[in-house]
Design the sequence.
């Protein structure tokens, strides 16, 4: 899971009073929330994001899984886009044209799609020849698409 938070700092006297009274959720979490995602998908995500040593340490077909940081890549590549999305929503939130929860939900949907796109496009490091033969695919993070489909978001306080 990664978190995108809202800092409640309002600059300028026009919005000063509104900023003090702003209530609602503070962050959106994107990834595989405990209790909402299947444990097998959480395990696959962790093993691939951080890598494993294989064997008893988990992952793969018994061998080590190299680090494939799909969540960190998605955040790094899209950080500016998330900041811009929050900025464009700020005036609407402060003037009552939209709710903070709705803006964070839109941001969550955006980030969820970015993580899913990274799962689809990540090609390096490649699967081992044994893994390609066993699963019938060379895409490192997609076997049956279940992990990609399990990526979600949650707006939190």
Sequence:
């Amino acid at each position: 899971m990664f978190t995108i938070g809202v800092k409640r700092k309002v600059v300028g006297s026009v919005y000063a009073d509104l900023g003090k009274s702003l209530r609602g959720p503070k962050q959106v979490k994107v990834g595989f929330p405990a209790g909402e995602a299947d444990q097998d998908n959480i395990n696959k995500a962790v093993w691939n994001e951080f890598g494993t040593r294989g064997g008893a340490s988990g992952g793969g077909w018994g061998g080590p899984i190299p680090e494939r940081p799909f969540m960190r890549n998605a955040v790094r590549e899209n950080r500016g886009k998330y900041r811009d999305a929050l900025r464009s929503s700020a005036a609407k939130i402060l003037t009552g044209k939209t709710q903070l929860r709705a803006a964070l939900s839109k941001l969550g949907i955006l980030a969820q799609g970015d993580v899913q796109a990274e799962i689809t496009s990540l090609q390096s490091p490649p699967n081992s020849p044994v893994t390609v033969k066993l699963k019938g695919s060379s895409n490192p993070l997609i076997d049956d698409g279940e992990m990609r489909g399990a990526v979600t978001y949650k707006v939190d306080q």
The two ends are 15 Å apart (CA to CA). The longest helix spans residues 70-94. DSSP finds six helices and three strands in the chain.
